[in-house]
Structures are given as structure tokens and as C-alpha cells.
């Protein structure tokens, strides 16, 4: 914009300068002709004087040149006005405005001119006598307002053109910017949804680099989606295939363990077999649940309006026996009714998982409390224990699949429980949050959007 203004100002100045130079040249040509005429009068006067006839130079020159300008003036070498003609008529009794500087300059032998405020050009030329003395100044006045009108028109055209050009440039740059940012935003949106594992077709109807990028992204999305689908299917198939042989192993080992057997060593092995097959069954069940999750879309869930407090109580009743057997006191604090929109089986599973951890990672004669809270637009099930706690650097990681904290090795587990809880909560628009202090206890909250 600034450079554009500089260009316009320069062009305007240049036009003004060259136009004025042209006018100046024209005036000089006119002045030369008038000087010639004046000199003729002078030479006639010299001849008349030689012949002894009286002659008034100024008067004769004015007579000859009176029509050679809008106004014509003759001065002597003392800057005294000797004659004046306006519009070709000689006027005797009028003293016009005189630009003295102009006359002085001319008397030094130069062409001199001044432009008045009403756009009249006063052009003065020195007239030399036979002794080469500047004894007269001839001044003629030209109206050059046409020049200013022309300059105004040029300026108008220049500014109008520049304005139009700026508007055109702005519109076209806006168009170009829109044309490039819109597809970039579209591609950005696509990559963001890819990162959330939501794959959709990416297509831009253009043949340039952006179009190629879109096509590449689309191919990548298809491959990624296929790969993830394959991976999920694989886990699901393997888990499923393992279920039947595992049930057989568990059945047989249980049979052997419970059977009559005197050998203590063998009995220990059978016991170990039962435990390990139990652990494997749990792992397979959790893997199956995860893969079912991965496959199911939000609409495939069987959701219903559920009282979270009631659901938490039901789950607590289910695990009470386990807590009792470890000498842990399980209390439910009576809270408000909090309605959420969830799949009840999955939600029970999530709460049971958190409770299972609380029992598993707590020592006997400690307490576990369950509380349902309402905070802003959220319903929260909070399960707090007085167990071994989780170190600060591991809190962020325990929600990851298969992650087990360092101090959890004494208790059995696969490291999948919390990640399943997290996914269940997220499936219904919620999330998990954990607070814990090593050696003091842990508080796990399942947050869900309130109905
Ligand atoms: N209440 C708790 N107190 C202390 N540590 C906990 C508690 N809950 C979870 N953790 C830590 O978080 C880790 C992950 O828990 P998660 O439930 O996912 O797995 P897990 O209990 O080890 O195995 P499982 O898959 O059988 O539940 C646990 O191994 C444990 O270290
Ligand atoms: Mg667990």
C-alpha cells in the first residue's frame, strides 16, 4: 500500500514537472517572437531619432504587441511601468499588481516568470538597446488555468485507477488466500480426525500439490483404518480362539487339584495351574472386552438412563464379600441421585474394576469408601482407599493398557483394568481421574456427563 502511494506520488510529480517544462518552452518561444517584434520597434525608433523625428518607444511597442497576451506590460530600466494593455486594449490610468522580483530578474538579462494564485503566468523578458543594455522589460500574461485543470484530471484518473487497482488486488488476494487456506483447514481437520481414529474420505477437487496431498492422505487413511481393523480383529480372534482350550485347561486343573492326591508337590503344581489359568481367563476376557470396545461405535452401545448412585450400590454389594474376606470395611456414603446415560453392564464393570483395585492394593483393616457426587455438569463416582498408593511419576501412566506400577508386583494383575475403565468412561463422554499418595491411599473418580 505504502509503495503504491509512493509510486502514485512520483508519477503525479513527474507528469506535473514535464507538463510545466512544456509550458515553459512554449512561453520561451512566444517570448522570442515578442522580443523580435520589440527590437524591430526599437530599431525603427533609432532610425527616427537619427532622422530627428520624436518617437516614443514604449508606446509604439505597446501598439505593436498589445494583443500578444491577456495582459501586456512594458517597464523601463528603473522598473517603472511605461505602458499596459489588457485584452488588446491600451489602458492608461490603471496601476496593476506588479511582481517586482520578476522585473528585477529580467533586468539582469534572464527570462523570468511568476504564477499568480489565480493561475496567471507573468512572463518577463529583457529587451536590449543598441548598446546591449537591458533598457526595457516586456512582460506578457498568459492564463494557464487549463494546465491546472488538466493536472486535476490526470490526478483524478490516477487516483481512480489506483483505487480500482487496490480493490482488485485486495479482492484477488482475498480470493487466493481463501482458496489456499480453506483446503489446508480441510486437510488439517482430516488429520485431526485421523488421530482420533475416525477415518473418512479425504478429497479435494484440484490437481495441484494440495489435491495430491489430499489423495495421499486419503490413501494413508484407508491403509491405517484397514491396519487398525485388522489388528483389532486379530486380537479378538486370538482371544476368542484361546477361550475354549483355556476353559478345558482350567476345568482339568481344577479337577486335578480337587481330586484325591497325597503328593504335596503335585498338589502345589495343580494349585499353581488353577491360579494361572484363572489369570489367563481374566486376561482373555479383558482383551475380548477391549476388542469389542474398539469395534463398537457410539450408537452400537445399549445405553439407558441410569441412576449412578443405585448402580454403585449394586456393584458394592457384589464385591462386599471379597472386601470382608480381606478384613476391609466398605462404606457407601449416601449421596444425591445422579442420572447418567450409560450402558449399565459396562458401567458396572468399570466401577467393579476400580473397586477390585482398591481391595487388591489395600492392606487388611483399612477402609474403602464409595461416594457419588454432582459437580457442575458432571456425576462422579469416587472410590477412595487407604492402600499402598501410586507414586506421582506413575499416576499418568496407570491408565495405559498393560501398565502396572512398580509397587503392584505383589498383587496379581494384567494392567488392563484401569485402561478398560477409562475407555468405558470415554465411551459415554466422561473420563477418569486419579489422586494418590504413596503409602497413604488412592482415590479414583469416574466422571460422567450429568443428564
Ligand atoms: N487403588 C489402587 N492403589 C494402588 N495402586 C493402584 C490402584 N489402582 C491401580 N493401581 C496401580 O495401577 C496399575 C494399573 O491398574 P489396572 O487395574 O489397570 O491393572 P491391574 O490391577 O494391575 O491389573 P488388572 O488388569 O487385573 O486390573 C496397577 O498395576 C497398580 O499399580
Ligand atoms: Mg486392576
Automatic annotation (TrEMBL):
SUPFAM superfamilies: ATPase domain of HSP90 chaperone/DNA topoisomerase II/histidine kinase, HAMP domain-like, Homodimeric domain of signal transducing histidine kinase. It catalyses: ATP + protein L-histidine = ADP + protein N-phospho-L-histidine. It is a multi-pass membrane protein. Residues 237-451 form the Histidine kinase domain. Its EC number is 2.7.13.3. GO terms for molecular function: kinase activity. SMART domains: HATPase_c, HisKA. Residues 178-229 form the HAMP domain. The chain crosses the membrane at residues 6-23, 156-177. InterPro entries: BphY/WalK/GraS-like, HAMP_dom, HATPase_C_sf, HATPase_dom, His_kinase_dom, HisK_dim/P_dom, HisK_dim/P_sf, Sig_transdc_His_kin-like_C. It is found in: Cell membrane. Keywords: ATP-binding, Cell membrane, Kinase, Membrane, Nucleotide-binding, Phosphoprotein, Transferase, Transmembrane, Transmembrane helix, Two-component regulatory system. This is histidine kinase. It comes from Paenibacillus tritici.
Amino acid at each position: 500500500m505504502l509503495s503504491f502511494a509512493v509510486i502514485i506520488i512520483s508519477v503525479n510529480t513527474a507528469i506535473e514537472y514535464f507538463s510545466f517544462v512544456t509550458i515553459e518552452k512554449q512561453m520561451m518561444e512566444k517570448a522570442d517572437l515578442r522580443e523580435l517584434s520589440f527590437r524591430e520597434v526599437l530599431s525603427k525608433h533609432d532610425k527616427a531619432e537619427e532622422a530627428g523625428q520624436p518617437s516614443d518607444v514604449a508606446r509604439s511597442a505597446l501598439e505593436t504587441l498589445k494583443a500578444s497576451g491577456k495582459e501586456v506590460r512594458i517597464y523601463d530600466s528603473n522598473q517603472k511601468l511605461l505602458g499596459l494593455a489588457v485584452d488588446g486594449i491600451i489602458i492608461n490610468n490603471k496601476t496593476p499588481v506588479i511582481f517586482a522580483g520578476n522585473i528585477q530578474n529580467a533586468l539582469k538579462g534572464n527570462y523570468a516568470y511568476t504564477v499568480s494564485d489565480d493561475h496567471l503566468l507573468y512572463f518577463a523578458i529583457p529587451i536590449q538597446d543598441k548598446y546591449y543594455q537591458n533598457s526595457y522589460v516586456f512582460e506578457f500574461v498568459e492564463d494557464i488555468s487549463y494546465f491546472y485543470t488538466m493536472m486535476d484530471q490526470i490526478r483524478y484518473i490516477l487516483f481512480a485507477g489506483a483505487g480500482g487497482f487496490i480493490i482488485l488486488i485486495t479482492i484477488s488476494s482475498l480470493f487466493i488466500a481463501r482458496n489456499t487456506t480453506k483446503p489446508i483447514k480441510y486437510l488439517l481437520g482430516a488429520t485431526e480426525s485421523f488421530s482420533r481414529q475416525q477415518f473418512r474420505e479425504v478429497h479435494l477437487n484440484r490437481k495441484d500439490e494440495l489435491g495430491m496431498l489430499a489423495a495421499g492422505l486419503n490413501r494413508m487413511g484407508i491403509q491405517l483404518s484397514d491396519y487398525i481393523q485388522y489388528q483389532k480383529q486379530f486380537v479378538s480372534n486370538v482371544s476368542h480362539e484361546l477361550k475354549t482350550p483355556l476353559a478345558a485347561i482350567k476345568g482339568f486343573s481344577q479337577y486335578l487339584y480337587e481330586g484325591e492326591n497325597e503328593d504335596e508337590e503335585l498338589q502345589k503344581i495343580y494349585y499353581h495351574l488353577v491360579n494361572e489359568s484363572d489369570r489367563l481367563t481374566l486376561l482373555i476376557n479383558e482383551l475380548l472386552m477391549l476388542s469389542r470396545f474398539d469395534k463398537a461405535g457410539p450408537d452400537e452401545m445399549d445405553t439407558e438412563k441410569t441412576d449412578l448412585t443405585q448402580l454403585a450400590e449394586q456393584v458394592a454389594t457384589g464385591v462386599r464379600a471379597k472386601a470382608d474376606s480381606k478384613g476391609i470395611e466398605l462404606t457407601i456414603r449416601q449421596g444425591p441421585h445422579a442420572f447418567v446415560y450409560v450402558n449399565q453392564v459396562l458401567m458396572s464393570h468399570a466401577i467393579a474394576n476400580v473397586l477390585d483395585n482398591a481391595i487388591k492394593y489395600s492392606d487388611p483393616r483399612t477402609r474403602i469408601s464409595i461416594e457419588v457426587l454432582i459437580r457442575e455438569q458432571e456425576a462422579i463416582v469416587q472410590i477412595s482407599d487407604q492402600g499402598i498408593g501410586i507414586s506421582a511419576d506413575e499416576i499418568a501412566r496407570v491408565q495405559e493398557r498393560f501398565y502396572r506400577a512398580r509397587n503392584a508386583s505383589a498383587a496379581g494383575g494384567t494392567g488392563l483394568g484401569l485402561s478398560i475403565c477409562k475407555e468405558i468412561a470415554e465411551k459415554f463422554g466422561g473420563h477418569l481421574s486419579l489422586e494418590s499418595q504413596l503409602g497413604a491411599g488412592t482415590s479414583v473418580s469416574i466422571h460422567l456427563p450429568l443428564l
